[in-house]
Every structure is written in structure tokens, then in C-alpha cells.
Amino acid sequence: MDDPAFEIETDAQTQSILLAAANHDVSALRNLLRNSSANVQDSETGFTPLHAAIAACESDEETGKTNTNGDTNAQIDGVIKQQEIEAAVKTMKLLFENGAIWNDLDTNDETPGCIAHRLGLKELYELCVDAGVRAELLLSRLDAYQLLGDAESEEDEEEEVAGTFHESIENIDLNSEDAQVDKSTENPNYLASTLTFDRDRILDESANGVMMEWETTLMRRSAELLIPTPDLRVLNVGHGMAIIDSIIQEKKPKSHHIIEAHPDVLKRMREQGWYAKPGVVIHEGRWQDIVPSLVEKNEMFDAIYFDTFAEEYKALRDFFSEFVIGLLDPAGGTGGDGGRFGFFCGMGADRQVAYDVYNKIVEIDLFEAGFDTEWETIPVPDLDEQGEWDGVKRKYWALKDYKLPTCSFIG
Predict the structure, then answer these.
(1) Which pTM was predicted?
(2) Distance (Å, rounded) from C-alpha 400 to C-alpha 380?
(3) Of 133, 166, 199, which residue sits at a domain end?
């Protein structure tokens, strides 16, 4: 509709909703949402009502103001601050109940959760994370569930629900505009690309970082937890730069199976002598084509590690829910206490809120598949400061801490 009067009325409604959210006026907001959406945005700032509700809690200290009236006023300010947080919680819950989108971006490329995290508003941040988990779990369930009825009605219903929860978490990226149009990291395109091997990284022909040397500390710790003693049977999916496979070799495994799909990596493995190493068995191809035959042959392992490139989270979920349960020896491992499974945990690592949402989702999915997960936090150095991203098209890591998962069978 091109009616200017309608546009003015719509903008006034949007501003009223944003103002009510910023003031944490639940009563006014509830009335406004009866005839409007919780998913409106300010044309200048990109703020949604969620952004506004959280940003309104920014403290005087953060805005540059100071309190000079002593401890008594500071205590009063603390009480007022807590009341403000409680009001913001009620406001956010109302917005989420009315379909507010947890990962909308403002003009500063921040989600509501990003603002809460930056301002140190833990309770509000956790509300955003929990909303993200609910939304993404529902989307994943819809993806797996085949609705009854004709194809047209199914498509319409799925589009409506997907629209409610906006873009999937995989699409949140520090360079989100590029991410929407970049097809180079789709698996078939990656496998057909020519790789560049430098001393400290592998890049595909679009300059995407496939693997980088800074990951060594993380992989070494994973190997220590998965393979604490020699003479264990190990499976690694994704050879890459040979970082974790070299560490596995240091552990003196009884057998060491490697699955690798990229022709350039396989060529380099031959040149580096991996095919001739004692106990090493190399499987050429995609794990989706190889792993079922390992299960059929009743191959069992004490430790399994998974780190592939250009695959969505669904691939990892399928791997541990469909195949790890058949490959990992429940009576294996050190002292017969059961095998262990690990993976490179980099989903959503472009921003903290996405990473925390994904970690909760993967832990839920692992539990449903029969695995208990222990997490270890490992600090990551400032990769920008160290120049790690020089020449790389997109960062795939932007966080201060890495959450390392180690999984074992429940019970």
C-alpha cells in the first residue's frame, strides 16, 4: 500500500510499541500488541521491541554518568536497578509470548542478546538464549517432521512458522550479507574447490578458512580427554591439516581410522606418508557413504572425533544420533569404562549468543541420543591481534572462550 497516511499511522504504531517496550510498560504493550506485531523495527536504529527493552537497562556507569552521593544512594540505585531488570524480564517474556524474534539484527549488527551480553545483563541474556533454543529446536523438529496433507498446504504452514522465527542460526555471521549469497561453503562446492595449503592454514579457492593452526590447542586437549592411554581404537572424521591425527599418533593407538573426502587433502596425505603409517586405515570419501559400512562390519572404537567442513549442524546431529551409537564401544575405552566421542564445537561462533544457543541445542540432542556431555572452557587468544584472519574471507571464530565437549554413554 502506497498511502502516505497509512505509512504515518504504521510508523506511529511502531514507535508506540518501541516506547512501551523501552519503558517496560507491560500494560500498554499488551494493549498495543493486540492489533500489532512484536516484530517491528525502528527505521533508523533497527531496534525491535526486544532491543529497546534491553538497551533501556543500560546503567549510568555505562552511559558515562557518575554517582557522587555516597553509599546510601548507591544502595538505592541498586534496588532501582533490580526493579528495572525485573520489569525488563516481564516485558521480554510478553514479547516472546507474542512471537518476538530472538536474533533480529539492529543497524549495529547486534541481536537483542548481543546487547544484553555487552551490558552484562545476565538474566536478560539468558532469556534471549532460552528463546533461541526454543525457536531453533522447533525449527529442527519441523524440518524432520513430514506433515500430513497436500504439498501446497505443508509448504505454506512451514513458511509461516519459519517466518515467525526468522533466519536459522547457521545464517548469523559477522559478515551476514556475504553469508546469504556465498555458496562456496556448501559441501559439493567445497569438495570441488582447489585448496591452498600454507604453513598455518588451509584455504579453499574462495579464501574461506577450512582449518587453521590456532585450533591446535583445542584439538590437543580433546585428544587428551578422548585418548588418555595408548592402545585404543580411534576414528577421526576429517583430516584437514593433520592436526588432530598427528596428536592421535603420539598417543600410540592400536588402530587409527581416518575418513577424508577432499581430493586435495587425500593427495597431501599420500605425499606425507599417512597411507604407510602402521595401524592407520584411510577411508576416501564422504563420511555419509563410509560410516554405514563400518557399522555393518561391526567396527568398534574407543574414541571418535568429528570435524568436517562445509556441513550444517544437521550433519553432526545425524552422525552422533545415527552412527556413533553403533561405532562407540560401551565397554571400551580405558579400563572398560566406555568409549568417548568429541567434535570441534564451532557452531554459531561468530557471536556469543548464537554460540550459547547452539551449545544448549547440541547438549539436548546428545542427551536424546543417549550421551552425557562434559564441557571444558578453554580461553582463545585474540586472533585479530595475532593476524590470524589476514587473507581469510570470513572469520569463523570471534569469541574469547571455546567450550570443549567430551561425550560418553549415559549410565
Answers:
(1) 0.88
(2) 5
(3) 166
Distance CA 268, CA 120 (A): 47
Least Cα distance to 355 among 304, 292, 307, 403 occurs for 403
- The residue among 101, 136, 166 that closes a domain is 166
User: What DSSP state is assigned to residue 274?
Assistant: G
Structural domain total, the chain: 2
Q: How many residues does the chain have?
A: 411
Long-range CB contacts (within 8 A, 24+) of 139-148: 139/165, 139/168, 140/314, 140/317, 140/361, 143/314
User: pLDDT tens digits, residue range 19-69?
Assistant: 999 999 999 999 999 999 999 999 999 999 999 999 999 976 655 554 555
**Residues spanned by the domain of 398:** 187-409
Residues facing residue 402 across a β-bridge: 378
pLDDT at 69: 56
Residue 196 corresponds to which cell in the numbers above? 591452498
| Three-class secondary structure of residue 279 per DSSP | coil
Cα distances (Å, whole numbers) of residue 204 to 173, 208, 304, 392:
18, 5, 26, 10
Give the span between the Cα atoms of 70 and 395, in whole angstroms: 46
Mean pLDDT of 216-237: 98
Query: Which residue is listed with cell 589476514?
Result: 390
Which value, in Å, is the radius of gyration of the alpha carbons in the chain? 25
70-97 and 122-144 helices cross at what angle (nearest 10)?
A: 10
The x, y and z cell numbers of residue 235, run together, are 576414528
Sheet bearing 233-237, strands edge to edge: 280-284, 255-260, 233-237, 303-306, 340-343, 401-409, 371-379
Rounded distance between C-alpha atoms, residue 143 and residue 160, angstroms: 13
Lateral strand order in the sheet of 201-203: 196-197, 201-203, 209-212
Which residues, in sequence order, are bridge partners of residue 260? Answer: 284
pLDDT of residue 158: 43
Residues 264 and 404 in one domain: yes
Distance CA 135, CA 169 (A): 10
